[in-house]
Amino acid sequence: MNIVEIRNIVIDYKLKKYSLRAVDNVDFDIAAGKITALVGESGSGKTTIASSLLNCISSPGQIVSGSVTFKDGEREIRVESLDENSLNAFRWEKISMVFQGAQSALNPVVTIFNQFYETMLVHENYKPKDSRVKITKEAAEKRVRYLLDFVNLDADRVMAAYPHELSGGMKQRVMIAFSLLLDPSLIILDEPTTALDVITQDFIFRLLRKINRETGVAMLLLTHDISVVAKYADYVGVMYGGRLMEYGAVEDVFRDKLHPYTRGLINSTPAINKDVSLLKPIGGEPPNLLDMPSGCKFHPRCPYCREECKTIEPETFSKENGHKIKCFLYSDGEDKCRI
Questions:
Q1: What pTM does this model have?
Q2: What distance in Å separates the CA atoms of residue 286 and residue 44, rounded to the nearest whole number?
Q3: Cβ contact 335:325 at 8 Å
Q4: In what order do the strands lie in the sheet with 75-78?
């Protein structure tokens, strides 16, 4: 069962002299109760896709075509069609987000509890008048205390604290608790451990997986670290130049590595049990979105490039198990780049 279905989404940033295509015909699902990851280099379109789920793409970006459908039980919500009031109610109640920098997501002059409480009051006002419920401070404090305890924070201390009184890891856990405040069905995690040390990073990811398994909330993880995907995600989409190059269950993608870019990411990832001399970096540089190569966008860096790759962009080919590959090397169902 899917919680979100993204169909052929195209997102452009329209400037005065030209238009920059950040996402081009991306199509994938986010499974209910599972962790889905989008992995790729900076500028590959991960954050832009995530923003489309909340219809909050930074100006002058806009969804040109395609659809984002949120499944709310038997009801289907077309996110890109919501009016402003409905969209404000939708955000955080149905889909919430843990932003890349917790330091900039919290108000520095308001205590942590008051930021939680204010959010609850604001969202209650988005509801129709006949269905609003007055939220008391006592009820809000009980909810916030529960969430802070759930993310292993001292609720008494943290609720009374200002953001500058908390460490980076504590602020990140506050934001995770914040994302759970209104009991959403999906949480977007945009590089949730940026600027944290490796021990804290691992703790945060273990906490996220615990939340996913115990509450059943679905998660969309945006990251450039493919080793994190292998350890914590259930499904993964590999992004490159605004295209979805490969998508499937984590075990299928890591076992088969059907797209050359996926293989390059995995082969260039260091491991404590791997000889560093055996690492194979991906040659070349990520594509310039202002001057994209013709054909397959990965062909200038691909060791298996053929003539057709230089002029024709491949379609997305699907296996019976839902594994998708955007590459001519798999056009007839056979993997022709197996090493």
A1: 0.92
A2: 8
A3: no
A4: 19-31, 2-14, 61-72, 75-78
| Mean residue pLDDT across the chain | 91
Q: Are 313 and 232 a contacting pair, CB within 8 Å?
A: no
Residue 168 lies in a domain: yes
Measured from the Cβ of residue 133, the count of other Cβ atoms closer than 10 Å reads 8
N- to C-terminal Cα distance for the chain?
Answer: 35
In whole angstroms, give the CA distance from residue 63 to residue 52: 7
pLDDT score recorded for residue 105: 85
Provide the residue range defining the domain that includes 160. Answer: 108-183
Assess whether pLDDT exceeds 60 at residue 335. Answer: no
Q: Is the distance from CB of 238 to CB of 41 less than 8 angstroms?
A: no
Q: Please count the structural domains in the chain.
A: 1
Does any domain span residue 149? yes
- Mean pLDDT, range 254-262, rounded to an integer: 93
**pLDDT the model gives residue 133:** 82
**Residue 283 CB-half CA count within 13 A:** 6
Measuring CA to CA, which residue among 317, 334, 338 is closest to residue 326? 317
Q: What is the maximum alpha-carbon separation in the chain?
A: 68
Report CA-CA distances (Å) from 3 to 11, 74, 118, 224, 335.
21, 11, 28, 24, 31
DSSP code string of 230-278: HHH-SEEEEEETTEEEEEEEHHHHHHH--SHHHHHHHHT---TTS-GGG
Q: Is 182 exposed, middle or buried (0-12, 13-18, 19+ CB in 10 A)?
A: middle
